[in-house]
Design brief:
The protein is an alpha+beta fold and 388 residues long. The chain folds into 3 domains: 131 residues, Glutaredoxin (3-Layer(aba) Sandwich), CATH 3.40.30; 109 residues, no CATH class; 95 residues, no CATH class. Strands 2-1-3-4 form a 4-stranded mixed sheet, with helices on both faces. It has a two-stranded antiparallel sheet with strand order 5-6. Strands 7-8 form a two-stranded antiparallel sheet. The longest helix is centred in the last third of the chain and has 20 residues.
């Protein structure tokens, strides 16, 4: 075969363009809506890859700048997928996050050309591992579609449900987990240790008004008896998180404003559901909001109230809080003055209290009263407060 000079350069140019296409990494298509991505996928007979990101997400930026730009990423994704990026806090993003039950970033969604979800991945990783995981999703063996099919066919035994939710928990698919366990009572879930432990790590991601969470919380005492105080407190923290998230508005994770009406609405919801330690949990949320909003006066007021209610039982909690406060607000002279006064008063109270029935610890070969341990910690914090 004879090739002209012109044909040679045209062919060379073609191969150069093809190589450039893949060596530049994944080609993300600009779209105005998700439905446009579905239409492009149908037209090209490709699947859909959606990079769900937020502006504040560090791992999202790492994947975009370091992994998706690699040649192997382009070689794998570009022939197979219509790839799009969607900011989940802008435009259509929030609605899609709600529809597809997205609670962590980065989340990567994969759809058929018809717009049916094939599966998802959550979190950042190297492109080689990422491609291997995508291959497993598309293959359909032991992926979400595999479990969805068995569930839709009526399989409901505990071992299967536990296996199914073990696939959903790492993907933070709270809504789907709730649907899978919809017909299970709180007692059934908590009494099955395998199912409970599989579910345990996702509990902090539940909303306070989630039906599954409310079923679990109704068995708080059972959780405490079977799994201990730490697990019972995992349930408690969902209420605190609900009070804060519903009432505080953030701007890129920085406190912006507080809505007392919304805070009070969640507190009322807690009362209606007979939440144990309701007052303590509400005060814990108030403490967190006061800290985030730099309302030091309110924070010390809450700390003082804690001491009046719980006496020395709260020292183990106040000490790390005060340590953080002094670390973060050391330039706030007014706050440091109040902190110093608060700590000196607490030291005075500890020295003057009745020590007859106090716990004794051994430290460096010497017996030390619990109050003396606390005083030592308080003095250490005092030493970090800048002098006036």
């Amino acid at each position: 075969m004879i090739m002209s000079r012109k044909s040679f350069f045209l062919l060379a140019y073609f191969f150069f363009v093809c190589h450039l296409c893949y060596s530049q990494g994944i080609e993300f298509v600009e779209i105005s809506s998700f439905s446009e991505a579905v239409q492009k996928a149908k037209d090209s007979s490709k699947s859909i890859f959606v990079d769900c990101y937020t502006e504040w997400c560090g791992p999202c930026k790492m994947m975009a700048k370091k992994e998706f730009v690699k040649e192997e990423a382009g070689s794998y994704f570009n022939p197979r997928f219509v790839s799009v990026k969607i900011d989940m806090e802008k435009g259509e993003g929030p609605a899609l996050a709600k529809k597809y039950d997205i609670h962590a970033y980065p989340t990567f969604l994969f759809f058929s050309a018809e717009g049916k979800e094939i599966g998802r991945l959550v979190g950042a990783e190297g492109i080689a591992d990422f491609i291997n995981h995508v291959d497993s999703l598309i293959d359909g063996k032991k992926g979400l579609l595999y479990y969805q099919k068995r569930f839709n066919e009526g399989e409901r035994d505990n071992s299967f449900l536990t296996e199914y939710i073990s696939q959903l928990v790492p993907l933070y698919m709270v809504k789907q987990i709730s649907e899978v366990l919809e017909n299970k009572s709180g007692e059934e879930i908590v009494s099955d240790s395998s199912m409970y432990y599989t579910l345990r790590n996702i509990i902090p991601s539940f909303n306070y008004d989630n039906d599954l969470f409310l079923k679990l919380y109704s068995k708080r005492s059972m959780v405490h008896d079977l799994y201990g105080l730490d697990d019972a407190e995992i349930l408690d923290k969902v209420w605190v998180a609900g009070l804060v998230s519903q009432s505080v508005e953030y701007d890129f994770n920085v406190f912006k404003s507080f809505n007392k009406d919304k805070f009070d609405a969640v507190a009322a919801f807690m009362r209606n559901h007979g939440v144990e330690k309701e007052i303590e949990l509400v005060l814990e949320a108030e403490r967190q909001i006061a800290f985030e909003s730099h309302n030091c006066a309110r924070l010390f007021e809450l700390m003082q109230g804690d001491l009046k209610r719980y006496s020395e039982k709260l020292d183990h909690k106040l000490i790390p809080e005060l340590s953080c406060l002094v670390q973060y607000y050391s330039n706030n002279k007014k706050a440091m003055k109040v902190a110093g006064k608060f700590i000196r008063n607490r030291i005075r109270q500890l020295k003057n209290q009745d020590h007859s029935n106090e716990a004794v610890f051994e430290r460096d070969g010497q017996k030390v009263l619990l109050s003396d341990l606390f005083i030592g910690y308080y003095n250490d914090i005092l030493s970090k407060i800048p002098s006036e």
